[in-house]
Specification:
heterodimer; A: 200 residues; alpha+beta; 2 helices; B: 451 residues; D-Maltodextrin-Binding Protein, domain 2; 2 domains; two-stranded antiparallel ribbon; 12 helices; globular
Chain lengths: 200, 451
């Protein structure tokens, strides 16, 4: 009977629609957090690609506590050493910078977080983040995240002959600090499986 | 001294020729720091590691590599990045002409004692009038920052004194008088002075402090004078070499490494007080430039094998990386100086390695106050810093909360961010400089407060 079946269909459709909306919302949230639909309030013309943060057990790291040390085990880049450089002894160093309102990214203040670490494959730069590296809280103590909580991470390559290639494009990630937590707002999606094999 | 008398004057001329390029080419047009840059002066042996900390080395980033607005500026000690001394122009000195009996007939000579070390000038701040470059860990590091009061517009330009010395109570009191503040000491690393020989040497496996003392004092002139030579009492001693004359290389009395040598021998010779003159008494001694392997390798082969000299392990290690360069002074003459034409002539940049020398008891670490122990002494890489800078509320870099001391050398907050010298990047640079990262902090009463 139409009088009894119609409501069932409607409820089913509503349930399906609700589930669909939910899936979409979750998907959008995931997309927002991983691929950066949230608008990062600055641009960096020298950012060539995105950094992926990985845990020691090969999982992506997209959030954490500001006191976590290290805040990730590895940072993976996607932009290899330019071919004009001798790739022997290629290293990568993770820097952190402090975005500030109205200041060009080239003028951000910052520090090298890690020592320069040898990369296994200059086409797939990566660096290990040791436990003695500043936590996110250390960085924001030294350089408060005054621009809506943002901190920029940069993976800068270097070679023994050419030094640290600070004038070259680098891969970057943008994290946002909120209270005692941080989240990755703009970052890469490289596979973290085997990340440890990318550092020598 | 063993130098052959007939060639002594010629060697003086050769030595002066070698310094000619230095006398004429230290342009001193160094980078001039801006008011909020942090300026370091002082010790030559420490300058390389501080240069690395400031600007990096090879692929290793330094503090300034991050591109911050204000910089850590580290001035070399002598104006030569390899720490060699510069001299006044020897061509301006009076000469005498040899007659074949004294010197070569018709050849002009100058007296060594007429030579003077150059006082190279420097601009310690952009736009400031020139001053004589603060040089050495004592005068240019410790004493320079203690004297860095503003006087008639001059001074107040040095933030860090580099020195292997420690501060005394009188030093602190004088700093208080001059600067209105005492000084903190931040040790960033430890280096160790050992005995260098030629790679192929007649020296034994190790030389005790007592043996070194007696060699330099002139009690032991030949290897065979060492009791037990040729037996297991002196490991590595060859009885066939017992008659060979030992060549103890001494350093200029104003060389930092000479002061370290005297101090270390004195620490190990517990039965007597050892002073500089005690260690300059061997009649076969040769005076040479500190920290330079050619002080041994340039000797005639017969002397090389018998030469010994105090040498810092950090410099030996850094030499091994190819950081230093060979220079061409000795291929030229006074009349036609030769220099390394940048990026032009063949071999213009040939690494000056540590080939040809080795260090006895290379892997040793701790000091032993015992004359029977192998000679060796640690010395610190210190930064002297005003206490008022340690406690300053003035943030350094734009946007930062840290003052420059907190950013670079010492953060009094035990839970705060580590200073750059303790960071992974900073430690890697100190290791690259061949020294052992070793972090300690001493307060204005010279008491150790960390660790």
């Amino acid at each position: 009977m139409t009088t009894t079946t119609a409501p069932r269909l409607t409820r089913a459709r509503l349930l399906a629609a609700g589930l669909a909306v939910g899936v979409v919302v979750v998907a959008v949230v995931v997309v927002l957090r991983v691929t950066g639909e949230r608008t990062v309030p600055y641009e960096d013309a020298r950012s060539a690609g995105l950094l992926t943060l990985c845990s020691a057990d090969g999982k992506p790291v997209v959030e954490g506590k500001v006191d976590d040390r290290p805040f990730a085990a590895f940072a993976l880049g996607e932009t290899g050493l330019p071919p004009e450089y001798d790739s022997a002894g290629t290293v990568a160093t993770l820097f952190a910078y402090q975005p500030r309102e109205g200041i060009d990214a080239g003028e951000f203040s910052g520090v090298p977080l890690t020592a320069a670490g040898l990369v296994a494959d200059p086409a797939k730069p990566a660096v290990a983040i040791a436990e003695n590296v500043w936590s996110v809280a250390d960085f924001t103590t030294a350089f408060p995240a005054t621009l809506d909580g943002y901190v920029q991470l940069r993976l800068v390559l270097g070679t023994p002959g050419a030094g640290t290639l600070t004038e070259n494009p680098y891969d970057a990630a943008d994290i946002r600090v909120d209270g005692d937590s941080w989240e990755l707002v703009r970052g890469g999606s490289a596979s973290c499986t085997g990340a440890a094999d990318l550092v020598s | 001294m063993l130098r052959r008398k007939t060639t002594g004057a010629a060697l003086v001329a050769l030595a002066t020729a070698s310094t000619l390029a230095l006398a004429h080419s230290p342009a001193e047009a160094d980078f001039s720091p801006q008011p909020q840059d942090v300026v370091s002066t002082g010790s030559d042996i420490i300058q390389n590691s501080f240069n690395f900390l400031a600007d990096g080395y090879g692929a290793l980033p330094g503090y300034n590599t991050a591109g911050n607005r204000y910089r850590f500026v580290n001035f070399d000690s002598s104006g030569d990045a390899q720490g060699r001394s510069a001299f006044t122009d020897p061509r301006l000195l009076n000469t005498i002409t040899g007659n074949g009996t004294v010197g070569e007939n018709g050849v002009k000579y100058i007296k060594q004692s007429d030579l003077r070390l150059l006082n190279p000038a420097i601009s310690l701040r952009a736009g400031a009038p020139l001053v004589v470059r603060p040089s050495g860990g004592g005068a240019g590091g410790r004493d320079a920052i203690i004297a860095d009061k503003v006087d008639a517009g001059i001074g107040g330009w040095i933030d860090i004194g580099r020195s292997p010395n420690s501060l005394s109570t009188p030093n602190q009191n004088l700093a208080q008088t001059n600067l209105g503040t005492k000084l903190f000491t931040v040790q960033v690393a430890t280096d160790r002075q050992l005995i260098a020989t030629a790679t192929t040497t007649n020296a034994p496996t190790a030389l005790t402090a007592d043996q070194i003392y007696k060699i330099y004092k002139g009690e032991y002139d030949t290897w065979g004078d060492i009791p037990g030579w040729g037996t297991g009492t002196v490991p590595g001693s060859d009885p066939a070499k017992a008659g060979e004359t030992i060549i103890p290389i001494i350093l200029p009395t104003d060389a930092g490494m000479w002061s370290i040598f005297v101090t270390n021998v004195d620490k190990q010779i517990t039965s007597a007080t050892v002073v500089s003159s005690d260690l300059r008494a061997n009649p076969n001694r040769i005076e040479a430039q500190q920290n330079d392997p050619t002080s041994i390798t340039a000797l005639p082969p017969g002397q090389q094998a018998n030469a010994i000299m105090p040498f810092p392990r950090g410099r030996y290690n850094l030499l091994g990386t190819g950081y230093y360069t060979q220079t061409k002074e000795f291929t030229g003459s006074l009349a036609t100086p030769v220099t390394n034409l940048y990026n032009t002539d063949a071999g213009h940049r040939t690494a000056a390695g540590n080939n040809g020398i080795k260090l006895l008891d290379f892997a040793s670490t701790g000091d032993v106050a015992d004359p029977a122990a192998p000679y060796g002494g640690n010395f610190p890489y210190n930064a002297f810093i005003r206490a008022t800078d340690v406690t300053s509320n003035t943030a350094w870099q734009p946007g930062s909360t840290l003052n420059w001391v907190e950013a670079l050398f010492y953060n009094p907050d035990p839970d705060g961010p580590l200073p750059f010298v303790r960071s992974a990047a900073g430690i890697a640079l100190l290791e690259a400089a061949g020294v052992t990262p070793d972090y300690r902090v001493y307060d204005t009463s010279n008491a150790q407060i960390f660790p």
